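Recall the central idea of this unit: under ordinary conditions, the amino acid sequence of a chain determines the structure it adopts. In this exercise we apply that idea directly, starting from the sequence alone.
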Amino acid sequence: MCHQMAMKKEAINKQKAELLRRAQIGIGVPIVWVLGGPGCGKGTQCAKIVEKYGFTHLSSGDLLRDEVASGSAKGKELAEVMKQGLLVSNDDVLDLLEKAIRKNLPNSTGYLIDGYPREKDQGAAFEKKIAPADLIIFFDCADETLVARVMGRAALSTEKRADDNEETIKTRIATFRSNTNQILNQYTDKTVAFNAERNVDDIFEDVTRALDCLIEKKQAAVART
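Accordingly, the structure predicted from this sequence is:
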């Protein structure tokens, strides 16, 4: 009986510690998911956000490549998975995101999570494991615009890829659209969508207004704690 009570108490303490860990990650630090189809220009906007606000820009793809390049045991494991043409598990991606967030937490003014989540379940997993997203920025473009931009970018590139053809790009965009619509429908109260077919600076004006509002609310919430 005493052993069972001790185990139960230990489990409760672990649960409390986990909740505290998640809360500590999110307090006072805006977390923004940045979504948009291939060619929408979110990379350009993320760079401008980093320049103006000093946010930490995290891309799951970059984190995976960096981990592989590090030569760590986990990096070697991930390299083997990718070599076999398999998808890296979402748990591994979340571990890398959490590690990067923790590493930058003392100095970061906020986080841009670029291109993640890609599916509805990934968003829920992120909020459960790491912290709730404060804002979702969606850069919206017509499919025709995305195709034209990606094809134009491919034509100018010196590196030709097998998937740089119109039909493959259309398929990628259709998959993105289906998955992203599910994510946005799940987080309607946190989402702001911007027409990304406009001038870069005009788009950034809208982004700035949204982020200024978010930062003000976040600072006010921290002040009340």
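The chain is about 65% helix and 10% strand.
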